[in-house]
């Protein structure tokens, strides 16, 4: 039996949604384990585009179980809206195919407001968050004052929990000159939607244990990317959860030995949304071109993504940090028209060459990429499904990249469509 974790190896938006959807034909269960509706995963199936934020990408397939694990922060209103949106596209969503962990923590309107207040007040120091309340919700979780899905069961309990969390938020709000948040309104709003959420709620750790006993194949779907990990990313310009594969165990309640293969999704170039260091960023015409050809606009916030060359140093680093077994290389077709293509193979920092990104943000901002230059292939790869059919220069680029990151490229994606994928090694069949 193989269970696979799919995670982003860069700054998010690597094409996780497409690859999870493609792999989910073989999986029985698809599980989200961290993040929230800051994620935006795009699936294109027979010309129809689905943009998923909280729902696992397996939801679009028939006869699959989708799970939102305890490690996810859930905005209940955003979730209900997303369920309605996907149902309107003819997809079934009910307790028979969607499970939400009883112990998942809720994102409430005051979290979203706090995210906005802080970002607006930070000026140049802003993180460029998605303003969905992700950070403040995780803070309350770790601060042990959060409201969890199970708290919606009893009005008395909810009242008590709201009292605790609002004591904290209202003290901060007062200090910032903002209005005090009223408990009764949010309580009645939550009680109104409680039955719609609670019907999906189950002990996820127990369901996963059952599925494991039944030898069902489980696909863990990461959100964001390792460079946005709160411990290992470009802190403080990160999200507030662990995005590494290990989070699949804590974010669902199964041991690390439940994950047999870690697939790192990696774009053939690099993008980043929001603020923070980005050594290979291109602020020139080529960067613009990558953005246009790659349609690099945020799925969640429609923000323009920053674009740059493939950073081999960073990807090699994230592979080691997260224990990635194989790479799914995506968006190769976006490079089709370039005369030359570069891979960053080292950094220069104050006169010396280094082979990793240091943890200090001021050093991260200072490093200068050292590039290896490749000839472009200047012919279409879009839609190619066999490695042999790729142009020679594309093969050379892929092989050099594979050698540099010291990890097998197990698939290559050549368009947003599910089937436009070159399979080299099937993670479920190893
Ligand atoms: P995720 O957050 O990692 O799931 O990625 P997003 O969905 O936010 O962004 C990836 C974008 O690239 C989406 O618009 C996908 O439809 C698109 N995409 C995925 N794979 C490919 C590919 O191989 N080629 C092209 N051209 N687009 C792709
Ligand atoms: P997917 O799953 C790209 C970025 C935000 C910001 C930082 C913190 O689609 O790859 P947050 O709202 O999480 O507090 O924002 O993280 N960010 C993402 N960037 N893809 C994502 O998700 C992201 N989720 C958060 O832009 O820089
Ligand atoms: Mg995305």
CATH homology group of the largest domain: Adenylosuccinate Synthetase, subunit A, domain 3
Q: Name the CATH class of the largest domain.
A: Alpha Beta
Provide a count of the helices.
Answer: 12
What count of domains describes the coordinates? 3
Question: How are the strands ordered across the major sheet?
Answer: 9-7-5-2-10-1-11-15-19-20
Which runs of at least 5 residues are low in confidence (pLDDT < 50)? none
Structural class: alpha/beta
Kindly report the CATH topology of the largest domain: Adenylosuccinate Synthetase, Chain A, domain 3
* Amino- and carboxy-terminal Cα gap: 9 Å
**How many strand segments?**
20
The assigned CATH architecture of the largest domain is: Alpha-Beta Complex
As a percent range, the share of helical residues equals 25-40%
Bound molecules: guanosine-5'-diphosphate, 6-O-phosphoryl inosine monophosphate, magnesium ion
What Rg do the Cα atoms give? 22 Å
Overall body shape:
globular
On the 0-100 scale, what is the average pLDDT? 96
């Amino acid at each position: 039996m193989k269970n696979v974790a799919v995670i982003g190896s860069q700054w998010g938006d690597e094409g996780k949604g497409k690859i999870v959807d493609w792999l989910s034909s073989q999986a029985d269960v698809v599980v989200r384990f961290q993040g929230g509706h800051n994620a935006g995963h795009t699936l294109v199936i027979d010309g129809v585009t689905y943009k998923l934020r909280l729902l696992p990408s397996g939801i679009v397939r028939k006869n699959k179980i989708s799970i939102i694990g305890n490690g996810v922060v859930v905005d209940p209103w955003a979730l209900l809206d997303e369920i309605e949106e996907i149902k309107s596209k003819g997809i079934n969503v009910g307790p028979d195919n969607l499970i939400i962990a009883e112990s998942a923590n809720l994102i409430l309107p005051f979290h979203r407001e706090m995210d906005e207040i802080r970002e607006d007040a930070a000026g140049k120091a802003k993180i460029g968050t998605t303003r969905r309340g992700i950070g403040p919700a995780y803070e309350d979780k770790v601060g042990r004052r959060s409201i969890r899905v199970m708290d919606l069961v009893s009005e008395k309990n909810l009242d008590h929990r709201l009292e605790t969390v609002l004591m904290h938020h209202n003290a901060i709000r007062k200090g910032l000159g903002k209005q005090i948040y009223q408990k009764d309104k949010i309580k009645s709003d939550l009680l109104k939607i409680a039955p719609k959420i609670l019907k999906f709620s189950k002990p996820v750790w127990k369901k996963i244990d059952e599925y494991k006993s039944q030898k069902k194949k489980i696909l863990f779907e990461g959100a964001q990317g390792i460079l946005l990990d709160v411990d290992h990313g470009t802190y403080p310009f990160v999200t507030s959860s662990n995005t590494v594969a290990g989070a699949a165990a804590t974010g669902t309640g199964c041991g690390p030995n439940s994950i047999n293969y870690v697939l790192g999704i990696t774009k053939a170039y690099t993008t980043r949304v929001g603020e923070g260091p980005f050594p290979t960023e291109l602020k020139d015409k080529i960067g613009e071109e990558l953005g246009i050809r790659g349609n690099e606009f945020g799925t969640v916030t429609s923000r323009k993504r920053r674009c740059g060359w493939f950073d081999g140093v960073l990807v090699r680093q994230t592979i080691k940090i997260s224990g990635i077994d194989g790479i799914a290389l995506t968006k190769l077709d976006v490079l089709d028209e370039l005369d030359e293509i570069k891979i960053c193979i080292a950094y220069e920092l104050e006169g010396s060459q280094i082979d990793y990104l240091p943890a200090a943000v001021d050093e991260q901002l200072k490093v200068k990429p050292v590039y290896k230059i490749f000839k472009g292939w200047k012919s279409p790869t879009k839609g190619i499904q066999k490695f042999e059919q790729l142009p020679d220069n594309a093969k050379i680029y892929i092989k050099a990249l594979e050698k540099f990151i010291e990890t097998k490229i197990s698939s290559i994606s050549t368009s947003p469509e599910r089937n436009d994928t070159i399979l080299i090694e099937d993670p479920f069949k190893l």
